[in-house]
């Protein structure tokens, strides 16, 4: 049976500035992501803090120390791509969508992402994933909305309206860091 999909990413899109801030805190205070506290994310409602922080910890825990350093101190593109990698490592549904749909579209020189692409992918996955099939229509719509927003924030599409696919140009530093991580390179369409 395939690994169960988690859809908790609807609580927080890519959140690059927050990911950078938390990565800096981890490096500077020599702590682990699990030692971060709700007040570290600065939201006003404690319930929002806890849920948002839980998602950020999940993402940051997927990164190695060198990746966290690059997230904290890299250039803007490196920070965006490391945030995207952490997101995809945390949420297999999103990773599968990028690798199975977007990367395949690039291969056939189709650089526009459509609703039909997403819907066909979701319906295929729902056959093997009851956790996807059992979602309400509102939740399905929210998942789709957040997926496209993350693709935009992560630099893989130009905007959520036109959805033109962009193939990132990776820095030498990021390429070196990911050289043995085939799935991460696929995620970044490289």
Provide tags for this entry:
190 residues, fold of a uncharacterized protein from magnetospirillum magneticum, 10 helices
Protein described:
The chain has 190 residues and is mostly helical. It has one domain (8-187): uncharacterized protein from magnetospirillum magneticum domain (fold of a uncharacterized protein from magnetospirillum magneticum, Orthogonal Bundle). Helices cover 62% and strands 0% of the residues. It is built from ten helices and no strands. It has helices at residues 16-29, 46-60, 65-73, 76-90, 92-107, 115-128, 130-133, 137-153, 172-178, 182-187. Helix 4 (76-90) crosses helix 5 (92-107). It is globular, with a radius of gyration of 16 Å. The model has no long low-confidence stretch (mean pLDDT 94).
